[in-house]
Amino acid sequence: MKALLIPVKDLRNAKQRLAPWLSQSDRTELAAAIFDDFCEAVVRARGMDRIFLISNYEPAIDRARKFGWDVIRETEQHSESASVDAASRICAGCGVTSLARVPIDLPLATPQDIASIFTAIRPAPSTVIVPSRSGTGTNTLMRTPPALFPSHFGPNSFPKHLAEAKSCGAECIVLRNERLELDVDDFDDLQVLAARTDLSDAIRRWLERAGFGNAARTAGAGAAIYKTIPPAGEACEK
Predict the structure, then answer these.
(1) What is the DSSP pairing of strand 126-131 with strand 138-144?
(2) Is there a single domain that holds both residue 6 and residue 70?
(3) Total number of domains constituting the chain
(4) Do 29 and 144 lie in a common domain?
(5) Can the peptide bond before residue 230 be classed as cis, meaning omega within 30 degrees of 0?
(6) Which of 48, 70, 143, 174 is the most exposed place for a label (fewest CB within 10 A)?
(7) pTM for the predicted model, two decimal places
(8) In this structure, are 55 and 164 located in the same domain?
(9) pLDDT value of residue 77
(10) In a domain, 179, yes or no
């Protein structure tokens, strides 16, 4: 059985690395817009037998139940790795043989992109990894079986997951996909996102409200929500 796992944190505390530029309400609205479009992509995707959501955030849980997804309710959250590994064990106990962890902050993900992860499955033991745009992070992680090795989400997670796969003798497929490789962590990611022409509705509306749309940039709109933006080439504190 093939399944998708969606971990969701409390969006009221989302996108902390964007704090130098956006207020918390703006960051929460951005995360909610990405989540809205991500859910639309998931419900139209093919290739998986079940969809699991793990969270303690009630709006996300309500959304999952509306779609008929399986909900793993958390009483507290320690880290994404801990949440994903706990869910992986539960999913394995439900008969899942291949489990793909896909986060909600992939604003360009399409149903076809999500389906492509499942078409890349190999016999156990194996893993399919989509790295981040920087090449150091892990944007999607498929493990066959689900608890094949522990998660290491965070800085430099991609080489850590490659090392884990090698240590347990798993076949490792690195799937390159520019849409799945773009997540939104910092201001540069937002600029890359705004330059795309293949945006979905909720994200496009947020970008325009925030001053990233072509018309808004021309008019100088949206400046009020930004904090000071460092000059080009100057490092930002994160």
Answers:
(1) antiparallel
(2) yes
(3) 2
(4) yes
(5) no
(6) 174
(7) 0.88
(8) yes
(9) 86
(10) no
Tokens, residue 121: 């499955």
Q: Which are the contacts of 158, defined by CB distance < 8 A and separation ≥ 6?
A: 129, 131, 132, 135, 136, 137, 138
81: nearest Cα among 160, 136, 175, 11: 160
In this structure, the answer to whether residues 164 and 219 fall within a common structural domain is: no
Model confidence at 185, in pLDDT bands (50, 70, 90)? confident
Hey, what amino acid is at 87?
A
What is the separation of C-alpha 144 from the centre of its chain, rounded to a whole number of angstroms?
20
- Cβ atoms of 64 and 71 closer than 8 Å: yes
79: which 2 tokens?
């880290």
Q: Which two tokens stand for residue 31?
A: 């995360």
Q: Give SS3 for 10.
A: coil
- d(CA 22, CA 27) in angstroms, rounded, equals 6
Quote the domain boundaries for residue 215.
187-225
CATH code of the domain in which 89 resides: 3.90.550.10
- What does the pLDDT read at residue 213? 59
Is 231 among the domain residues? no
